[in-house]
């Protein structure tokens, strides 16, 4: 997810029908510039050199989102629009891209799902399958200490700094919602929302960090020097 304001102007976007490295290419209606979906940069056009700024978003199930935000409004689909034309593609671990794309990096299978982050020239990928087993992982992206969590089918990434102090986390409880505890204050935190639930920091919120969930082959095509870290 990106902001749509570039050089002080709010842009509107459409789908160009083109692909670049097997990923969607957008165009803005104001200048006709072509933009990549994966990193929000301009491939060609008047705004070449511009960059859309990522903003945090949550990828989760409808049931989980509705539990957390019961007043959410949703766009209702027509009954005949249900299902995905890409279902077979997602099920086939060997089909990458639309023209027999090969996995450019054998550190992981090409269709492995990874949680990905990019900041100040640094890029990082963490396998979702490994995170499902551990529940959380702590690392850094550029100069930002981050907490990566997986709770109730929902991956999240948070900045571990609160009041200019970097917190280190340990597992407190897993079963239902993931609950973590920081070693500095023993405060208990929700791994799903990043909110402090009990302790001296109760009511504090870990700032969310922009991230994406990608296929490994697609992420590496755009970020060949990416770090791969295993929880």
Number of domains: 2
E-strand count: 19
Tally of helical segments: 4
Poorly predicted runs of 5 or more residues: none
Order of helices and strands: EEEEEEHHEEHEEEEEEEEEEHE
Helix content estimate: 10-25%
**What gyration radius follows from the Cα positions, in whole Å?**
19 Å
Distance between the termini: 25 Å
What's this model, at a glance?
The chain has four helices and 19 strands. It has 231 residues and is mainly beta.
Provide the descriptors you would attach to this structure in a database record.
231 residues; mainly beta; 2 domains; four-stranded antiparallel beta sheet; four-stranded mixed beta sheet; 4 helices; 11% helix
Describe the structure.
Helices cover 11% and strands 35% of the residues. The chain has 231 residues and is mainly beta. The chain has 2 domains: 5-44, no CATH class; 56-231, no CATH class. The strands form 6 sheets. It has a 4-stranded antiparallel beta sheet with strand order 3-4-5-6, with no helix packed on it. A 4-stranded mixed beta sheet has the order 18-7-8-19.
Summarize the helices and strands and which ones pair or pack:
Elements: E1 5-6, E2 9-10, E3 13-20, E4 23-28, E5 34-36, E6 42-44, H1 62-68, H2 87-91, E7 113-119, E8 122-127, H3 128-134, E9 136-141, E10 144-151, E11 154-159, E12 161-162, E13 165-166, E14 169-173, E15 179-182, E16 188-190, E17 196-198, E18 212-215, H4 216-222, E19 227-228
